[in-house]
Amino acid sequence: MRLKALVLALGLTVSAGAANAQTLDLTLSGGNPGGLWSLLGAGMDRAAKAEDPNAVITYQATGGGFANIGLLAANRTDLGMVHDAEVKLAQDGQEPFRAPVNNMRAIGYMYNWAPMHFFLKKSIAEEYKIDSLDDLASSKAPLTIGINRSGNITGNVALFMLQAAGLDEDTLKGNGGSFVRAGANEQGDLMQDGRIDMATNGIFIGHSSFRAIDQNTDVILLTIPDNVIAATNEAFGTSAYKIPGGSYSKQTGDVNTIALGAMVVTTENMDDAVAEKVARSFLDHIDEIRNVHKAMKQLSPELMVSQRVLPFHPGAEKVYKAAGLIK
Q1: Could you give the CA distance from residue 308 to residue 109 in angstroms, rounded to a whole number?
Q2: For residues 101 and 91, is the Cβ–Cβ distance under 8 A?
């Protein structure tokens, strides 16, 4: 492909020199405006500018990772934020995808510390003797359970984990319960108002929605059986995670669960020199990304290369190999 055509295809501005003099002008598809992903987009733009003052990474608010995979497939964005679990579903051709998606390539992992939480009202836990996810079905408790809205991967993961623990929708209905679809902050309000008995979501420990649940409702954090953790990680490409004891007011011991991660991806069509420059700017100016939110302080070069669900783009791989981060 001629350089001019490549420029048009990727939306790049190229100086008069060779390809390695390219100035980045890319679009990053993320999630809701004002959320963590929008902050990460701003940090990535600053990292690119620290490498080249003329570089631009423009953040585009979208419906989230599922939407971003579609935008990449349609060549309507250059980079996308996605959860590892969404990538796994796309590769396997599972809902909402009609066929396997195999053209995505990783630029870098951003975090892997968004653990699944299952908060149950303490009064119900005591009445039905529930302390683990696998007690829910056998307890026969008529629970109203909050699940994130359709299209949000944490809803998929929560339903899978509950089913793996024996509580599918038919069993829940047979017990006199039901699922209620609601976002993170909504679930806190619903619990406080007595409209749901249990909240489920996968976000950072101490997220504002979790703090609201912990402070305004008397709840316990359910433990997760090892077999449910293993099955979930196998199905979604997630990882085991421990919520330390004392993270919430009624949590006395550690709680093992799974955690979702998020990464920046592109497609195999991105020019190697462009992917190389993106990865180098993120790696060399990682503090620009770390500083967007206190939850990102854990980001490290080693974490950036730790994802296992996608091949790295050759341009990004070149950067990480040169830095001794991968072989």
Answers
A1: 10
A2: yes
Res 185: pLDDT: 86
CATH topology of domain 3-112+261-322: D-Maltodextrin-Binding Protein; domain 2 (3.40.190)
Question: Which value, to the nearest 10 degrees, does the dihedral of the CA atoms of residues 147, 207, 105, 73 take?
Answer: 50
DSSP state of 239: E
φ/ψ of residue 230, rounded to 5 = -65, -45
CATH code, residues 114-259 = 3.40.190.10
pLDDT digits (tens, 9 = 90+) for 35-83: 899 999 999 999 999 999 999 999 999 989 999 999 999 999 999 999 9
What is the C-alpha separation between 147 and 129, in angstroms, rounded? 22
Taking residue 300's Cβ as centre, other Cβ atoms within 10 Å add up to 13
HSE of 233, CA atoms in CB hemisphere, 13 A: 18
DSSP-assigned letter for residue 151: T
Yes or no: say if 131 and 302 are a contact pair by the CB < 8 Å rule. no
d(CA 37, CA 48): 16
Instruction: Return the H-helix or E-strand segment holding 283.
Output: helix 272-284
What CA–CA distance (Å, rounded) separates 255 from 244?
Answer: 7
pLDDT of residue 21: 60
Q: Is 259 left (phi over 0), alpha (psi -120 to 50) or beta?
A: beta
Judge if 3-112+261-322 and 114-259 fold alike in CATH terms. Answer: yes
| Domain locations along the chain | 3-112+261-322, 114-259
Backbone angles phi, psi at 126, to 5 degrees: -70, -40
